[in-house]
Amino acid sequence: EVQLVESGGNLVQPGGSLRLSCAASGFTFSSYEMNWVRQAPGKGLEWVSYISSSGNTIYYADSVKGRFTISRDNAKNSLYLQMNSLRAEDTAVYYCTTIYGSGRFDPWGQGTLVTVSS
Amino acid sequence: NFMLTQPHSVSESPGKTVTISCTGSSGSIASNYVRWYQQRPGSAPTTVIYEDNQRPSGVPDRFSGSIDSSSNSASLTISGLKTEDEADYYCQSYDSHNHWVFGGGTKLTVL
C-alpha cells in the first residue's frame, strides 16, 4: 500500500524553527518528485515547495522562499521541510504529496499541524 | 502572478447536476493540465480529475472535467449528485514560473 506519513508538527513561537518529515512506503520513493502543500485553518490549499526525484531541482512558493528548505533522503525514503523564521501566517496543516503521472498530486499524507503562536 | 478563481460555494439537490468553474487570470488555461481535487472535512485531498478530463480509477463517471479556451476556464461537472459528493473542490494547474497554483476552493453543498 502506498503511504505517506508526515510528522514533526508542533506549536512554535514566531521566529522559531521546525523540521517536518514525511516517511514514504509502498512505492519506489527515489523515482518520484515530491511536494509540500499547506492548508491554513479554514482556508484553501497552498503549494509550498517541490523537489525532483534526485533532489537536484527545487522550487519554492514566494511566501516561503528564503525561509523554508526542502530536502530528501532517498536511502531513507524520506522527505523533509526545514522551516525557519516562522510567522503566524505559516500556521497550517502541512501535507506531503507525490507527483504522479503527468503532474497530479497523488497520493497525499494525512498532514501534520504547525501552529506558530506566542 | 497566475491565479485560478473559483466560486466560493455552490449548492444543488441530490440527483441534479452541478458545474464548478475555475478561471485563469492570465495566459491560456489550456497551456497546462488542470486537475481537480476533492477534500472532505478532516481528510486529505484526493484526485477526481487529472489531465483536464481524465478520471482516476475508482472515481465514478458522474465526475467529468472540461476546458473552455474562450473563457479561459476549466469546469468540473458532477451529475446525479449524491450526499457523499458534499465536499470542498479545488482546481490546480501550473504557471510559467515553476509554481503550482490552486484555486481558492469551492464548497459543494448537496441539500
- Rg calculated over all Cα atoms of chain A: 13 Å
Largest protein-protein interface: A-B, 22 and 24 residues
Which ranges of chain B are low-confidence, i.e. pLDDT below 50, for 5 or more consecutive residues?
none
How helical, in percent, are the residues of chain B?
under 10%
Largest sheet of chain A: 7 strands, mixed
Protein model, in words:
- With 118 residues, chain A is mainly β.
- Chain A has strands at residues 3-7, 11-12, 18-25, 34-39, 45-51, 58-60, 68-73, 78-83, 92-100, 104-108, 112-116.
- The model of chain A has no long low-confidence stretch (mean pLDDT 97).
- Chain B has strands spanning 4-5, 9-12, 18-24, 35-39, 46-49, 63-68, 73-78, 87-94, 100-102, 106-110.
- In chain B, strands 2, 4, 5, 8, 9 and 10 form a six-stranded mixed sheet that branches. In chain B, strands 1-3-7-6 form a four-stranded antiparallel sheet, with no helix packed on it.
- In chain B, strand 6 (63-68) and strand 7 form a beta hairpin.
- Chain B is globular, with a radius of gyration of 13 Å.
- The mean pLDDT of chain B is 95.
- The A-B interface holds A 35, 37, 44-47, 50, 59, 61-62, 95, 101-111 and B 1, 33, 35, 37, 39, 44-47, 50-51, 56, 88, 90, 92, 94, 98-105.
Characteristic terms for this protein:
heterodimer; A: 118 residues; mainly beta; seven-stranded mixed beta sheet; globular; B: 111 residues; four-stranded antiparallel beta sheet
Secondary structure layout plus pairing:
The complex is a heterodimer of chains A (118) and B (111).
Chain A lengths: L2 E5 L3 E2 L5 E8 L8 E6 L5 E7 L6 E3 L7 E6 L4 E6 L8 E9 L3 E5 L3 E5 L2
Parallel strand pairs in A: 2-11
Antiparallel strand pairs in A: 1-3, 3-8, 4-5, 4-9, 5-6, 7-8, 9-10, 9-11
Chain B lengths: L3 E2 L3 E4 L5 E7 L10 E5 L6 E4 L13 E6 L4 E6 L8 E8 L5 E3 L3 E5 L1
Brief overview:
Chain A is mostly beta strands and 118 residues long. Chain A has no helices and eleven strands.
